[in-house]
TrEMBL record:
Residues 27-87 form the HTH tetR-type domain. It comes from the Bacteria. This is TetR/AcrR family transcriptional regulator. Residues 50-69 bind DNA. It comes from Streptomyces solicavernae. Keywords: DNA-binding, Transcription, Transcription regulation. Residues 9-18 have a biased composition (Basic and acidic residues). Residues 1-29 are annotated as: Disordered. InterPro entries: DNA-bd_HTH_TetR-type_CS, Homeodomain-like_sf, HTH-type_TetR-like_transc_reg, HTH_TetR, KstR2_TetR_C, Tet_transcr_reg_TetR-rel_C_sf.
Length: 214
């Protein structure tokens, strides 16, 4: 724990002219490093991603990376958390656009948004989380937690639909597992060169997914 004098010094430093500018610059550089690490994870998986590769792509010395992240695993953790938060933020924003609608329409919006994320707006999400055998054990629990947080978004709406009598599924856990399976496969079904009309196929996938509940 920092000493009282140390805390006071940090507070004085933050009040100095230019301190916020330096902080913003550091935050931008840190975000750039995380984005680069995510790109490498998406392309090569955990084993293929290296601090040397991140340093080269961001055009900074490898030693400089240690000013931001203590290790490769620290950086990978930040990249995974950043992706998770991005997905959760997008899902929350999409759900809020239909917050007054039925549970069916809310679930439809969430499923549609998730497929958009995986196939168009952030396809790296699908590829990063599709390397199950390459992750060290230390990521087992964090990734389980990320999946639980993601599942909770859909589960909340599914449970509300059951309470309202809109949904009729005998086992919500099975239905949600099947839903996640459909979502995961959507990045395989809807990709460049496979079908011309992505929007139409996405609607079909959403309709099929909703039949698990309605």
């Amino acid at each position: 724990m920092p000493s009282r004098n140390g805390a006071e010094t940090a507070e004085r430093d933050s009040d100095k002219p230019g301190a916020s500018r330096l902080s913003r610059r550091r935050d931008r550089r840190k975000a750039e490093i995380v984005r680069t690490a995510t790109e490498l994870l998406s392309s090569y998986g955990y084993q293929g991603m290296s601090l040397e590769g991140v340093a080269e792509r961001t055009d900074i010395a490898k030693a400089t990376l240690y000013h931001y992240f203590a290790s490769k695993d620290d950086l990978v953790s930040a990249a995974l958390e950043s992706l998770t938060e991005e997905v959760l933020t997008r899902l929350d924003a999409r759900r809020r656009t239909v917050s007054d609608a039925s549970a069916t329409e809310q679930l439809r919006a969430l499923v549609d948004e998730q497929i958009l994320i995986l196939t168009e707006t952030a396809p790296e999400v699908a590829t990063v989380f599709s390397w199950p055998k390459s992750w060290p054990e230390l990521f087992d629990e964090p990734m389980k937690d990320m999946r639980r947080r993601h599942d909770a978004v859909f589960r909340t709406v599914a449970e509300e639909g059951l309470r309202r009598g809109e949904f009729n599924c005998s086992n919500i856990n099975v239905a949600l597992q099947c839903l996640h399976g459909i979502l995961n496969q959507s990045s395989v079904w809807i990709r460049p060169g496979v079908v011309a009309d992505h929007a139409a196929l996405r609607r079909d996938v959403v309709d099929c997914a909703l039949r698990l509940f309605v």
